[in-house]
Amino acid sequence: MKQFTYNKLLVALVMLGFIASLIIGWQRYQVEYQNTVVDLVAEYDDVVKTAAIEGVDEDEFFRQLKDAGVTSVAVYETTLARLHER
Known about the structure:
The protein is mainly alpha-helical. 64% of the residues lie in helices and 7% in strands. It has 4 helices and 2 strands; from the N terminus they run H-E-H-H-E-H. The chain has a two-stranded parallel ribbon.
């Protein structure tokens, strides 16, 4: 009866590939885990307009937004149309 043996080179290559896949999997897990954070953003011009409409001080309105969970304020470049509106 013939005895079956594994080729050591092929076993080593399979193990090397398995270890590489574990490393890549761990790195991907870390990157994907960091992308679970969501930022709430309010546009600055809209905040100023809303504060004026509501009759609330801008600083107080920003405080209320912060308490509501808004973490960022977006400031866009001024365009000619926006300058014309003002």
